[in-house]
Amino acid sequence: MLSDIEIAQDAEVWPIEKIADKIGLEKSEWQPYGWDKAKITLGHEHDNDPLGKLILVISINPTAAGEGKSTVTVGLGDALAKVDEKTMIALREPSLGPVMGMKGGATGGGYSQVIPMADINLHFTGDFHALTSAHNTLAALIDNSIYQGNPLNIDPRRVLWKRALDVNDRALRHATIGLGGPTSGVPREDGFDITVASELMAILTLSTDLMDMKQRIEKIVIADTYDRQPVTVADLGVAGALTTLLKDAIHPNLVQTLAHTPTLIHGGPFANIAQGTNSVQATKTALQLSNYVVTEAGFGADLGGEKFLDFKVPLLGKTPDTIVIVATVRALKMHGGLAKDELKQPNVAALQNGLANLGQHLSSMKRYGVPVVVAINQFTDDTAEELQTIKDYAAEFDVPAYVADVWGQGGAGARELAAGVIEATHQPSDFTPLYTPEDAAIDKLNKIAQTIYGAQGVELSEKAQKQLKRFAKYGWDKLPIIMAKTQYSLSDDPKKLGAPSDFTIHVREFVPKLGAGFLVAMTGSILTMPGLPKHPAANDIDIDEDGTIRGLF
Amino acid sequence: MLSDIEIAQDAEVWPIEKIADKIGLEKSEWQPYGWDKAKITLGHEHDNDPLGKLILVISINPTAAGEGKSTVTVGLGDALAKVDEKTMIALREPSLGPVMGMKGGATGGGYSQVIPMADINLHFTGDFHALTSAHNTLAALIDNSIYQGNPLNIDPRRVLWKRALDVNDRALRHATIGLGGPTSGVPREDGFDITVASELMAILTLSTDLMDMKQRIEKIVIADTYDRQPVTVADLGVAGALTTLLKDAIHPNLVQTLAHTPTLIHGGPFANIAQGTNSVQATKTALQLSNYVVTEAGFGADLGGEKFLDFKVPLLGKTPDTIVIVATVRALKMHGGLAKDELKQPNVAALQNGLANLGQHLSSMKRYGVPVVVAINQFTDDTAEELQTIKDYAAEFDVPAYVADVWGQGGAGARELAAGVIEATHQPSDFTPLYTPEDAAIDKLNKIAQTIYGAQGVELSEKAQKQLKRFAKYGWDKLPIIMAKTQYSLSDDPKKLGAPSDFTIHVREFVPKLGAGFLVAMTGSILTMPGLPKHPAANDIDIDEDGTIRGLF
Questions:
Q1: Which listed residue, of A479, B58, B543, B549, carries a Cα 20 to 30 Å from A486's Cα?
Q2: Is B543 in Cβ contact with A210 (below 8 Å)?
Q3: Mapped to the 3 state alphabet, what secondary structure does B35-93 carry?
Q4: In terms of residue numbers, what domain contains A231?
Q5: pTM higher than 0.95, yes or no?
Q6: Contact residues, chain A, for B537 at CB < 8 Å
Q7: Which HAMAP family match (chains A, B) (predicted)?
C-alpha cells in the first residue's frame, strides 16, 4: 500500500495556470509560486456575482483513531466536481511545527489529497513565515520602545504580546529575556506561542483587504501602562510596517486536488485556541468563482463548527447551505470506551455507547436551522452492521447518513455522499444564530456551554470575573466569544469522551484580541505552544539527491 | 528627486520568463515566484561549460557617509551588459531585521537597482524564513532530546546551538528558557542570533547540492556532553528533516536590474561575522551562463574581500579576473577625520588624510596577484580636484581609477569603468593565496592581521588559547579562519578610522563551525544579534490600499 506522500508524488500535477484558467482568472488576478501553486490577487471586482452553495464539513470530537475530516472534505469536493465542474474546496494551511512532531498531514490522505502535499505542509507560499516575521518584529519594537526611554510608559511586567515561532518548542513557553546587561534590553518575563496562535493569524483570516488588516492591527492591545491603561499598536505607530510584511500573505493560495479540483488553502488558526477556520477572503473568493464550495472548520462541531457559525458567518455575510458531520466507526468505538488497539474487532455495543458523541453534535448543529448530513468515513475493518448502526442512529435525528470511501477511491468513493449533499443544499434553510452581539459575556458563554457542549453551564475563576469587570470599561465584554477548550471532549477535560453530562465549563481567564475582534475564554489547561514527542517525526523525514522526500507522512 | 523605492516602483519590469529566456534556461530549469522572481533549479549539467570572467567588487572600510558598493556593482553590471549581453550580476540577499531598523537597502540605489526591490528586501522567495525555520526546529529538537531523558548525555550548560530570528531584537540576545515547571522543558541559558549569523546560512551559501548540504548539516556541533565530547546533528539524527526544510532555499534566485540585466541573489551571510559572500552555487551558475559576472563581498576588502579570496575561491574553483575597490570622496574624507555634516565642503586635505585607508586595501588586494581597479562612486558635491586626487593616489599603486555616476545615470554612468574592467580582465593574473590549509591557526591569523589589516599581529585571550589546544584533538585547529571583526576599521576598534598602525588584533574566542567548515575568530565586541535604533525604520514604513509601499527606503 502506498503512503500518502508516495501517492502525492506519483500524481499527475496540472500546471497551476490550467487551474487558474479553469476558474476563469485573468493573468492579472493571480501570481505563480512555482509551477504548481499560486496566489489569487483578486480585488473586490467579483463582489456582486451570485454566490455558490456553501458546504461546511466538521466532525465529532476527534480521537486517536482519526476521523479524516480533511480527507472527506477533499473527496466530497472531487465528487461534487464530477457533478458540477464549478466546484471549489477551501481549506486551512497546515502549521509546520506539528509536521516535525507527530505524523499526520493537513492535506487529506490516500486518493483524496491536495497537492503538492510536501510543499503545502512545509513552507507553502510563506504565509506563516510572514506572520512569524511580523509577530516578532512587533515584539522587538515593543521591547525596543521600553529600552529607548519607554515613552509609552509600558509596564514590562504587563506586556501581553508574546513572541511566536512555527515550531513545537515547549522550552520556549516561559522565558526570561532582556538579560546580559544594560545594552541588551530590559529584563522581563516572556514566552513564545506557536505562530498559528498569534492574533495576527486571526487577523489574516478575517481581513477583507489591506486597509481592513491595517486597522485591525492598529487595535491590537500589546501591553498595559504602569497605570493600567491599554497600549495598542496604533500607539506604537507601526501598523503600516506590519501590514507591509503581510502584503502577500493576505492573498489566498490556489492549488489542486489529485483530481484537479481547484482548492484554496489560506490561513490556519487552530480551533482549540482561535477561530479555527480558513480565511474569510478565501471562502468568499471560492463562493464568487464557483457553484459549490466545500470548506471545513477545525476539530469537532463544538469547536470549529460553533465558531464558524457564530463568528465567521456574520463576517462572511453568507450562511452554510449544508453542514456535513464526519464520523467513523473507529472513533465512535473509542468514544464508546475502547482502546486504540481494540478497534479492529467488530463491536456494535461499543459503537452504540459512543454514538452519543455524534448525537450531541447532531442536535447542536441542527439547532442552527441549516440542513445537516452525516458522512461516515469508511475504514477497511468497518462491518456492514456497524455502518448501518450509525445510519440508523442518524435517522433518529432525521439526518441522512452516507458511507464514503474517500481514502481508497477518492471522489469516486463519495458519489452517494455528494448526491445527498446536493439534495440537502436545496432544502429550506433558516439560519438562527446562537447568541446576539448584545448578549452579556456570561450569557454567550452559557449558551455555548449548554447548547453546544451539553454542559450545566460555565464557572468563572476569580481572575476571569475581575477581568470582565475591568473589560466593561472599554466595551470589551461585548465582543464575540472564542472558546479555548480541549478538542477531545465536549467538556473541558480531555479524558471525558462520548457525551458527558453533569459537567461545568471552567473559564480560567480571558484574553482580549481587539484586532481580531473577539474575547478568548481559556478553559482547562489549553497550551498555546505544543511540545515534541519522544520520537519526533523529524527523525523519520529524509530527502534524496533528486529532492524526493520520505517519511513526511 | 525620486526616492529609491519610487524609482523602483516606476520601473518597467520584464516578466521573469523573458529574463530566463535571455540566459538560455529551459522551463524545466527554473520556477516562478510571482511574475518577477524565479528560482533556478539547474543541476550540474552546465558544469563543463567554459566559465565567464569573474569581477569581484569590494570597498574601503565603510563609513556613515555610505560607499554605495551594491549600487556600483549593479551599475557596472548594467554597463558591461551594454558591451556584452551575456553579463550577469550575483549578489547577496538582504536581511529583513535591519530593514525594520535603519534605512538603507541592499539592492543598489537610484538608477542602479535590482527589482522588485520591496519584495527582495522583505520576504523575497522565503530563503531566510526557511533558514529561521530549520534553525529553530533544530533548537527545539535539541531541547526535546534533553527533556525526553537526554539519551545523548547533552550538558544543558554547554549547548552551542542558539535560536535565531531575522529580527533586530537585542532583548533576545540572552535569555533563560525551559522555565514554567516540569512539563515545559529543562531550564537553561540560551540566546538568539540574527538568522544571517546561523551556521545554516553559511552552509546554504557553500553547499553544491542537497547531499552536500545534508552532509554539512550532519557535521554541525550542537553541544558538548557532560564529559565534554562534541555532539553533532548526525548524533541527533535529524539532518534529513533539516535538509528537507531547505530544499527550495538551496536554489539561486533570479531577478533583474532596472536595465533588465539578469541578476542572481542568493544567500546573505554578513562579512563581519561569517563569510560575507553570496552562494557558491549562484556564482557558479552565473559563471556558467554568461561571459561577465559581477559579484560583491560584504563590507571592506579586509572582511569580505579576504574571505572571498581565501575561503570562497577554493570552493568555487575559480579565481577573480579583476578586483574592483569602491571608494567615495565623502567616505575617504571621513577616514581623514571629518564628521558627517562636514562632508559637503570641498576638503582635499582631509581627503588626502583618509586615502591611507584605500591604500591599505590596494596593497593587500594587489598581493593576491589579480588585476585591481578603483571605482570612484561619484556624489553630487564631489569636486573635480577631489576626484583627481583619488585617481592620482591610485596611480601610485599602478592601479587605474574611474569615476562612475551610477546612482544618477545607471549603467550609462559606468561606461568608462566597464571599459577599464574589461581591459583589466584581459591582463595576466597569477592568483596567490594568503595562507595554505596546513598553516597553524595562529599563523593564518597573523597573516590575515599583518598582511590584510596592517596590524602588528594577533593576541589570543586565555580562553582562545585553551580552545585551540582542545580543538587540536579533533583537528578543528586546521580549519580555514573566518574573522569576526568590526567593519568600520582595519583594526578591531570601530573608532580607529583611516589606516591605523601599531595595533594588535585581539581574539576573544573561537567558534567552530564544522558544517560550514571554518573556525570563527571573534575579535572586539562583535554582536551576532543587532538592536533597533531609537527611531526604527518600521515607524516610517506604510502601505496604501493598492499595495504601494512608502518609506521602505
A1: A479
A2: yes
A3: CCCEEECCCCCCCCCCCCEEEEEEECCCCCCCCCHHHHHHHHHHHHHHHCCCEEEEECC
A4: 127-246
A5: yes
A6: 241
A7: FTHFS
